[in-house]
Amino acid sequence: MPGKIDLKNQKQEEKMKKLWIVLLSVALIMAFTLPVSAADVKFSGSYVAQGYYDNNRVLMKEGGSSVMNTWQRLRIQTDFQVQEGLKLTTKFDAMEKIWGASRSATYPTSYSSIGVQNTGSGEAENIKFREAYVTANLWGGILRVGYQQQNQWGTSFADYGDYGYGARIRYDYVVGPWTFLALYDKVEGTQYYAPAGPAGNVGVATYQVDQETDKYSLAFIYNWGKGNTGLLFQYVNDSTGSMAGYLGQTPNPATDLGYKRQWYAFLPYVKAQLGPVYVEAEVVYLAGKTRKYDTAGNGTDRTKDGLSGYASATVDFAPMYAGLTLVFVAGDDLSTNDKDEAGFPGVTDFNPLLILWNYDLQRWNGAIGPNGGISMASGIMNAQVAQVFVGVKPIPKLDVKASYAIAQADKDGAATGWQSKNYGSELDITATYKIYDNLSYMVGFAYLWAGDYFKGTNAGVQIDNDYLVTHKLTLTF
Prior knowledge:
Elements: H1 7-33, E1 40-54, E2 67-83, E3 86-98, H2 111-114, E4 127-138, E5 141-149, E6 165-175, E7 178-186, E8 213-224, E9 227-238, E10 259-274, E11 277-293, E12 302-317, E13 320-329, E14 339-340, H3 359-365, E15 383-392, E16 398-408, E17 422-436, E18 439-450, E19 466-476
Parallel strand pairs: 12-14
Antiparallel strand pairs: 1-2, 1-19, 2-3, 3-4, 4-5, 5-6, 6-7, 7-8, 8-9, 9-10, 10-11, 11-12, 12-13, 13-15, 15-16, 16-17, 17-18, 18-19
């Protein structure tokens, strides 16, 4: 009947409203009372895109080896502050590749040592996690456990943070201006254990099945108002030469080499602001043995005696500045079999030049020079370098810099027949503009007067010069 009120339906609707109010109240109470699993999450990272035109990488007359490409990388770090004094950190790289390059299903063999070359962009497989570790405030200090960057200390001279990450336990203890550190590192790609031994060697009593490379380090840092200094002592135990490889694993040898590598590293450094002059320096000295045979008579032990050093000074007389950089990395005397004199190279984080020993350029464009070329992606090795530079900042956001460097090898690249120790000289000019506080754009030009070191043992090769044009966009957040 029109106009008649359905009391039964009205009562049901009122009951449903009350039920929803109760459910909503319970949900709000639970939301405010349940413990928070991650109280604070922070993101940071960077995006880099860099283009190159390299005119003559083969360094030969009419070599026809120009290269033009652009590479990019997105790097994201996430910090989960679980509670006061407890944090989880992760970091990954994404879409690290040359623009337009085909993706590869496998990593290239160079992945474990110097990163990825343009011949196999395995790192372009979308996402590669680099770090995952816990940070906890314990016993008056800071404990970090998990996958972390392993190879950064002092100045950037001997650092290779770009690919030097792996399992680490680190403890920092601060007392006034002093910081004391204890570190344990497991080198990535070296661990293998099988109770039965590698295939085909089951039950062979003399066959060793443990393989690993471990680093044990103690260090201190002293800070003052305008600088700091420190010393790192490191012991390295490498048993990868004491067993044969399995299933073609790299870098394991195909047969048991019968020796271990056990050496020590001493790395003192200093960084200081002295009025208008900023100075920094670092020394790397290596001792011990790079071949210590398990059984006497199986071979000649080889001792380690390597020295490297770096020093730089910059004078600021705004809006201009000028300075000098010196680098020495000892080469190995290849005429001796019982000693390894090679110094530790300044590697991925240390790039004073745009062509010679520039990590990103060498990494994505391959070796430089004729006869297959000389790889420089592992950093400055067997070299003496002197570089002078001058710059000007006409406005706060613009930095224009020019440098000139000469480079010589410390030792010949072969025991006999090497043509020269002269790497050549290089002129670099760069201009960097800060579009935003977190966004910068760099354009650069470099010219290499290539030396006869690149002839190798081939006296008939005619070496020619090379020039490079580059630009780079960098976003940090």
